[in-house]
From TrEMBL, chain A:
Residues 6-247 form the ABC transporter domain. It comes from Alsobacter soli. This is ABC transporter ATP-binding protein. The lineage of its organism: Bacteria, Pseudomonadati, Pseudomonadota, Alphaproteobacteria, Hyphomicrobiales. One of its GO terms (molecular function) is ATP hydrolysis activity. It holds the Pfam family ABC_tran.
TrEMBL record, chain B:
It comes from Alsobacter soli. The chain crosses the membrane at residues 12-32, 39-58, 64-85, 97-122, 142-162, 192-214, 226-253, 273-296. It is a multi-pass membrane protein. GO terms for cellular component: plasma membrane. This is Branched-chain amino acid ABC transporter permease. Belongs to the binding-protein-dependent transport system permease family. LivHM subfamily.
UniProtKB/TrEMBL annotation, chain C:
This is Branched-chain amino acid ABC transporter permease. It comes from Alsobacter soli. It is a multi-pass membrane protein. The chain crosses the membrane at residues 23-43, 55-81, 101-122, 129-152, 177-197, 265-288, 300-319. GO terms for cellular component: plasma membrane.
Length: 250, 308, 334
């Protein structure tokens, strides 16, 4: 049995009296696509913040590739192999698409902050960046300032940036948020192509996509994981059905 | 280093701190509620002092001159808000800095054109002349006590306004979370104008009160502005309570630091060297304090914004 | 943010910056500066030589600020302190008989680096408005400290009875030679800053300006990147200070007054944020304007303030952008 790439243990976070993350345990195995779903207000965003390092948990541990990074800042987690995308598109608008991705690759290059040498002509970085752009189907848009890409292209660019970091695990925060039907189909195919090559933790509202992609699904309700298992098992889980139906009825 | 002398220095420190608070209060609210950086706030202090000087001389009455000066400071504040600041709320901080910097040049120069570059002095009102004996033949001017009391009264009034009135509630809410206030359907522009005008008047009041004990001169607002910045940063941006505590700390530290650093350094250094080093060091005390506070608490001592 | 994200669906074609102009204009500008002394001597206008020399020196300071403000997005309002540190180092060392440029420069750079590391480490822990205020306050700290340097004139400042030598030779005593030395420093500073901006470091710095959270998520330590830029920028500004003290043969606390910091910001805003040759242009525009206005009335600051306010209210992008827009439009037509 291989070791998990991401392991979360007994994670707790409260805001005042409200427990937003209540004793959450979760892991992602190498090559696995583990999806995290839950109704609005279930605490998915708070959980992601704690995994990514932008929010410190009250208790519990976050391990990435065996290293305890519970209190570590986001940059340290990135260096440990965690790459993430953001729910609200987060790019660098003044750089072109290639520059965005090359900057991601630059972070793990040998001398990431070298003061001399034109970075625009840095073929080692550009090569990696082009490969990542090609993987997400943005090769022809490399020279376009990132701020001018379409929304769907920006979502794809986010994934390319994460890939260029050479990560061990990808944390994908609603990659299909706000994307039209056609483009979301493209992103599903993209994610499918990443399956098996990376450990993936996917948070997504698009149930059709989640159930067609995931190896394993965990369901978060009111800060607790109420179920975890294969898509078939989750589909027929009475507690999950109740949580979702209850949520829709309310 | 007698007790009497210490008492006097503490009183001086309190007085400086309270005046700083009056200036800083408006500034921190404007930052907190509007996220607007107003370098020209110090100019309001200067304007208050000049108006007081001119109007006291013109009316021959300290009280009347003071009230008129407040009205004038308020009017000038409203004019600046309506003409310039209103167009800057949505701009970047850099634009705000630059425009209000330009405004400082304009107002400092205007004051110089009207009243000249030389300092002018304001007489202490007759009723508040004289001094209180502090023992051993050391006297402390009544007027300085009056400043302390008046500033305390205004601070108390401010506290009541903010804690007990609807506008105060909105201001507090705005300082910790501005979008929520506009979501409540409040006319945010009117709220901005009120906060702004009120802050301008407070700064003007501080300037007017300080006029008799300072030399009133062009640029006198600039150094106060920077001290007020230090106060706000130490106290936590947007926090009135923080501004109050920090203003007193800064006032006391600056005053006591200046008077005692020479004595302290003399323990280690020859007198001449001690004087030289102390001069540089004592002016740096509050900035060092600021650096230390920031290092441990980047949000200031009493941050207004809720934790997220 | 969200409007930006949703409104860009049509993906308009990428704006082509006038690359040729970006490459050529600094050279043209340098050449113009280089020819200036010849013109000044030929026409006997040596007063203008010292004005233009001041422009060249202030352009170095403006360039250094542009690195952190324009490229790094950090609104530092205490930059004059670094200029002052350089100026006082020169003044005090010349006064002490150790005024050779080869001695003064390393000391000034080291002091500026130390001051930058201390103030930067404290102020970069904050963001936005707080950062502006804190850099301003640290600038004032330096200002008051210089006022307390009683041995070196205190408030009144310090007059230099000679200029720095260069490797023992009194090169700077000659106006024209001084001018070319300053111009050499400007050219070097421009090349250096340009190299930094175009490097891996520069891209990370620029990225952190636009989106620090994203850049940190890549694994970069944004704080250290900014601190390094802040220190480098301060060191470069101190070079301008060393030259300025020698040029004026005088140093005083006024060099560090917070208005000087404001003026530096205004210079790079006029020139266009982040445009390096715009910073040079802005320094020139600022000092010429100051010269023109102060010749016109003793209350020139009034007009100056009004101009600043109007400039902020009614223009965006500065002179460099204006020139670029004009020339690229012309290019499209022709």
């Amino acid at each position: 049995m291989a070791e998990p790439i991401v392991r979360i243990d007994g994670l707790r976070k409260s805001f005042g009296a409200l427990a937003v993350t209540n004793d959450v345990a979760l892991d992602v195995m190498p090559g696995e696509l583990h999806a995290l779903i839950g109704p609005n207000g279930a605490g998915k965003t708070t959980l992601i913040h704690q995994i990514a390092g932008t929010l410190r948990p009250d208790a519990g541990r976050v391990l990435i590739d065996g290293a305890d990074l519970t209190g570590a800042p986001p940059a340290a987690r990135a260096r440990a192999g965690l790459a993430r995308t953001f729910q609200i598109t987060s790019i660098i608008p003044s750089l072109d698409a290639l520059g965005n991705v090359a900057l991601a690759a630059q972070a793990r290059a040998k001398r990431p902050l070298r003061l001399f040498g034109r970075v625009a002509a840095d073929e080692a970085l550009n090569g990696e960046a082009r490969a990542a752009l090609a993987a997400v189907g943005l090769s022809t848009r490399a020279a376009v300032p990132a701020g001018r890409l379409s929304h769907g292209e920006k979502r794809a660019l986010e994934i390319a940036m994460a890939l260029a970091m050479g990560p061990k695990v990808l944390l994908l925060d609603e990659p299909m948020a706000g994307v039209g039907r056609e483009e979301s189909g493209r992103i599903v195919e993209l994610l499918r192509s990443l399956k098996g090559r990376y450990a993936l933790l996917l948070v997504e509202h698009d149930m059709e996509a989640v159930f067609s992609l995931a190896d394993r699904i965990s369901v978060l309700v009111y800060g607790e994981v109420i179920a975890s298992g294969t898509p078939q098992a989750i589909r027929s889980d009475p507690a999950v059905r109740a949580a979702y139906l209850g949520d829709e009825a309310a | 280093m007698s007790i009497t002398l210490l008492t006097i220095q503490v009183l001086n420190g309190l007085q400086l701190g309270l005046l700083l608070f009056l200036v800083a209060a408006g500034l921190t609210l404007v930052f907190g509620v509007m996220d607007f950086i107003n370098l020209a706030h110090g100019v309001q202090y200067m304007v208050g002092a000049y108006l007081a000087a001119a109007l006291i001389a013109y009316t021959g009455s300290f009280a009347l001159g003071l009230v008129l000066a407040l009205v004038g400071a308020l009017a000038i504040g409203l004019a600046m808000e309506g003409l310039i600041f209103r167009h800057l709320y949505a701009r970047s901080h850099l634009d705000q800095v630059l425009a209000t910097f330009g405004l400082i040049l304009v107002l400092n120069e205007t004051v110089k054109m009207i009243w000249g570059a030389a300092p002018i002095s304001v007489a202490v009102p007759e009723a508040l002349q004289g001094a209180v004996a502090m023992g051993e033949g050391v006297l402390y001017p009544v007027y300085r006590f009056a400043i302390i009391l008046a500033a305390l009264a205004v601070a108390g009034l401010l506290w009541l306004l903010i804690e007990k009135t609807r506008i105060g509630m909105l201001v507090r809410a705005g300082a910790s979370n501005a979008p929520i206030v506009s979501a409540l359907g409040v006319d945010i522009n009117r709220l901005f104008m009120i906060v702004f005008a009120f802050g301008a008047m407070l700064a003007g009041f501080a300037g007017a009160m300080a006029a008799p004990i300072l030399s009133v001169e062009p640029g006198m607002g600039d150094s106060v502005l920077i001290l007020a910045f230090v106060v706000i940063v130490i106290g936590g941006i947007g926090s009135i309570r923080g501004a109050f505590a920090a203003a007193l700390i800064v006032g006391l530290l600056d005053t006591l630091g200046r008077s005692y650093s020479v004595d302290l350094l003399r323990l280690f250094l020859p007198p001449a060297a001690a004087r030289g080093v102390a001069g540089g060091l004592s002016s740096a005390f509050i900035y060092i304090l600021m650096a230390v506070v920031l290092f441990f608490r980047p949000e200031g001592l009493m941050p207004a914004r809720g934790r997220t | 943010m969200s409007a930006e994200a949703t409104g860009a669906g049509a993906a308009p074609p990428a704006p082509r910056r006038a690359l040729a102009l970006d490459g050529v204009s600094p050279l043209v500008l340098l050449a113009l500066f280089g020819l200036f002394p010849l013109v000044a001597i030929a026409t006997g206008q040596t007063y203008w030589l010292s004005l233009v020399n001041r422009i060249v020196i202030m352009a170095i300071a403006a360039l250094s600020l542009d690195l952190i403000l324009g490229v790094g997005g950090l609104v530092s309002f205490g930059h004059a302190a670094f200029v002052g540190i350089g100026a006082y180092t020169a003044g005090i060392m010349v006064d002490g008989g150790r005024g050779d440029l080869l001695l003064v420069l390393p000391v000034a750079l080291a002091l500026a680096a130390a001051f930058g590391a201390f103030t930067g480490a404290a102020s970069l822990r904050t963001k936005g408005v707080a950062f502006i205020m804190i850099t301003l306050a640290f600038g004032q700290m330096a200002f008051f400290f210089s006022q307390a340097l009683y041995a070196y004139g205190g408030d009144d400042g310090l007059t230099l009875f000679e200029r720095s030598t260069v490797a023992g030779f009194p090169v700077l005593e000659n106006k024209v030679a001084f001018f070319y030395v300053s111009l050499g420093f400007l050219a070097a500073a421009y090349t250096l800053v340009r190299a930094i901006v175009g490097s891996r470091f520069g891209r990370a710095l620029q990225g952190a300006r636009d989106n620090p959270v994203r850049v940190a998520s890549f694994g970069f330590d944004v704080f250290r990147i900014r601190l390094a830029a802040y220190v480098m920028s301060g060191m470069l500004a101190s070079v301008a200070g060393v030259l300025l003290a020698n040029q004026a043969e005088f140093v005083s606390p006024a060099y560090m007054a917070w208005q000087r910091s404001g003026e530096l910001i205004f210079m790079i805003i006029i020139g266009g944020l982040g445009s390096l040759w715009g910073a040079v242009l802005g320094a020139a525009a600022f000092l010429l304007l100051e010269e023109a206005l102060s010749g016109f009335s003793e209350h020139w600051k009034l007009a100056f303030g009004v101009l600043i306010v109007l400039f902020v209210l009614f223009t965006r992008g500065g002179l460099a952008d204006l020139l670029r827009r004009l020339t690229s439009r012309g290019g499209a037509r022709g």
